[in-house]
Amino acid sequence: MKYAIVILDGASGWPFEDHGGLTSLQRADTPNLDRMAAEGLVGLAHTVPEGEEPSSAAACMSILGYDPSAVRIGRGAIEAASLGIALADDEVALRLNTVTIADGVMRSYAAGHITTAESHALVAELAAALGDETFRFHPGVAYRHIVVVKGHPELMECAYTPPHDISDRPVAARTPRGAGAELLLDLMD
After folding, report:
1. What is the distance between the alpha carbons of residues 107 and 110, in angstroms, rounded to a whole number?
2. pTM of the entire structure?
3. Which residues are paired to 141 by β-bridges?
4. I want to staple 147 with a disulfide (CB 3.0 to 4.6 A). Which of 36, 48, 51, 96 is the partner?
């Protein structure tokens, strides 16, 4: 028997009043999912523990068999591993998005769908201007990159808002918060 785990990352979401109280997934036309469900075995799993923020990092860790409330690993570490970036014990990998902000508002969490070649050039400029023994910049794909921070484990406790969660909203109140935030805010300035 062959198995496939289909992860609809980001598909659940919250219900929208202007969508009749439905989620985006409930409104979607899903003929391929419908066929897989009809011809395969369907199960249900609670992938995010009660009290945890329903993030893709937490859900994916749970799907892989880890307890996300006990194993705190962010999206940055998962994506760093996928890019072959080795981390020392005193390093934290953070997701680095290229975005478009205009007049203090997140206009595009994907920098207007920047190409990988364009974004690699930007990340190279960031590395040249800001890279040092504390910060290492690594290009990824399209708008998704990694910054590795050395010697600041407190960043694992920092609160972050994913750029896609604040599309068309002011960013000032949604910058990193908590332990280590000042270090990142200085870098972002």
Report:
1. 9
2. 0.77
3. 144
4. 96
